[in-house]
Amino acid sequence: MSLAPRAVLVHRRTEYEELLTRHGTHGQAAFFLSSRGRSIDEVVRRHDRTQQALREVAAAVPLTWRSSRVERADLDRFLFAPQDVVVVVGQDGLVANTAKYLGGQPVVGIDTDPGRNPGVLVRHRCADTAALLRAATAASGRAEELTMVEAVADDTQRLLALNEIYLGPPGHQTARYRLGADGENDPGEAQASSGVLVGTGTGATGWLRSLWLERGSTAELPAPSEARLLWFVREAWPSPATGTTRVAGELGRGQRLRLTVESDRVMVFGDGMEADALELTWGQSVRLGIAETSLRLVT
Questions:
Q1: 231 closest CA partner among 242, 222, 243
Q2: 8 A C-beta contact, residue 271 and residue 264
């Protein structure tokens, strides 16, 4: 007998909860903000809206289903099961933070603060939860398959991301590496820069778009479901030993960008999750391209 579906509610601590953790009490947190010309009232109102949204979403889970909750900081220690339906309650970025830990489970994005969040990935309201959960488990349910990017190191470490993967130095130093297309006979170009960013169509509304605009790129930004990635080298430095001829490009399905580390350390992280990163040392290589896994966002 198969198990009933499990609804996994993903959320993150509110600003108010973070203030209480830091200052201990509501009064001390209020004093801290007031001494800087700010009021705690709006922070509390946003906290209350988030808590109310979590209650409404939890109440919409069918009684025959199992349910669980996980906070953003615990995602890397949470075991998602194949039959899970993941309900992200919060901001767009929380969907991206969650995506890297999934393996094809349907995702429902619930906006806790309409009008404040762009709503690119959290497209629905709390009142829609019950219908969305039914759609997520129905054969006829609609879901958008969003392209993801992956980095695979030569020691088999793997990292997934929905928006972008960044490779760079752990701090404000310069990263040194050799960059080229995987499978080419030439060894690639030796470069020194502040890092390399490889982004998806979902990430084209964020950091990737910023680099695209700054560079004045003529490449067309990919759509979220399109099997295409763009990559940019940030602030490549020309010198007798390092070049700047390979600073931008695109990757289709089956194509890989290869980076071989030639400095002490290079950190690889996705979607801003620096706490869950790969650390590569001199001589190691990493390959980047379109992931076989995509994010199934219930529409």
A1: 222
A2: no
- Residue in the structure block whose two tokens are 């009933």: 4
Q: Please compute the mean of the pLDDT values over residues 227-250 and round it to a whole number.
A: 95
- The pLDDT assigned to 8 comes to 98
> pLDDT per residue over 102-118, tens digit each?
999 999 999 998 888 88
Q: What is the pLDDT of residues 174-211, one digit of tens each?
A: 999 999 999 767 789 999 999 999 999 999 988 999 99
Contact by Cβ (8 Å): 116, 45: no
Please give the backbone phi and psi of residue 251, each rounded to the nearest 5 degrees, phi first: -130, 130
Euclidean distance between CA atoms 51 and 183, whole angstroms? 51
Positive or negative torsion for Cα 55, 57, 62, 67: negative
Residue 2 burial (CB count, 10 A): 5
H/E stretch holding 148 reads none
